[in-house]
Design brief:
The chain is of the alpha+beta class and 247 residues long. The protein contains eight helices and nine strands. Strand 2 and strand 3 form a beta hairpin.
């Protein structure tokens, strides 16, 4: 077992080590992860620190806890497609495949939604930086994606204001030019009626339902670095999961 380094918080070093084991295949899908007690003993840390490391992995959707049993590696092939999109953004810095056609519709300063300003800790009368993209594939227009950032990033990451696709994605770009690093993410999926703008882009009738996927990318101190809201036409998107029914 490696020794604790002082570069990162201890819980992040532990969670990173376990994550690397999973990525290398040393811990396969369904394999049990060391318990809080085992991690605390082997890494010479307090149990709350070990618990926080496991919680970090749970928040990332990498492991899951089973009551009365333990913590196990999640089978990534059984994750919803929207969660896979978030995984790509966190792992590769871009939520889109290289062959996707991405058109930047807007890049600039705006008054963002209340939930975005609150999450970014922006004053009520403050502006946020927005990037809005239309993503198409072989089947046509696939999604309408909007990302919000703190306005303070405009000065240190000016390419966010460019109306063109960023190689490596916004996360990759931000981490290459700033000290900001994504530590974990939270997402939420819901459905609602399409707005007039969404109906126009997706060529939908009125009324029409859309699927809305929100992703918040957090830094280690829990601050939100980037908010994403991705809208999908309901007739071109669905969830599919396979899982065991055995207890």
């Amino acid at each position: 077992m490696p020794e604790i380094e002082e570069v990162l918080p201890k819980y992040l070093q532990i969670s990173g080590y376990i994550r690397n084991q999973i990525e290398r295949g040393e811990l396969a899908p369904g394999a049990e992860v060391p318990s809080e007690r085992e991690l605390a003993a082997s890494w010479h840390v307090a149990r709350p620190t070990a618990a926080r490391a496991l919680n970090e992995l749970r928040q990332r959707g990498i492991v899951e806890s089973r009551r009365g049993s333990g913590t196990y590696v999640v089978d990534r092939s059984a994750l919803p497609a929207a969660r896979e999109r978030g995984d790509r953004a966190r792992q590769y810095g871009s939520a889109y495949s290289e062959n996707a056609s991405v058109t930047v519709l807007e890049a600039g300063m705006v008054d963002g939604p209340v939930w975005v300003r609150e999450g970014l800790a922006v004053a009520v009368d403050g502006s946020v930086l927005v990037r809005k993209r239309l993503v198409s594939n072989d089947s046509g227009v696939a999604e309408l994606a909007t990302s919000w950032f703190s306005a303070a990033l405009a000065e240190i990451a000016p390419r966010l204001l460019d109306a063109e696709r960023l190689p490596g994605g916004t996360v990759g770009y931000l981490e290459s030019v700033t000290d900001h690093r994504v530590s974990y993410a939270r997402d939420r999926v819901s459905a609602r009626l399409a707005t007039a703008d969404e109906r126009r882009h997706f060529d939908l009738p009125r009324p029409a339902a859309v699927l809305v996927y929100r992703l918040a990318l957090h830094e280690a101190d829990d601050a939100v670095l980037q908010f994403d809201e991705v809208v999908y036409p309901s007739d071109r998107w669905e969830f599919q999961q396979e899982y065991s029914t055995r207890s």
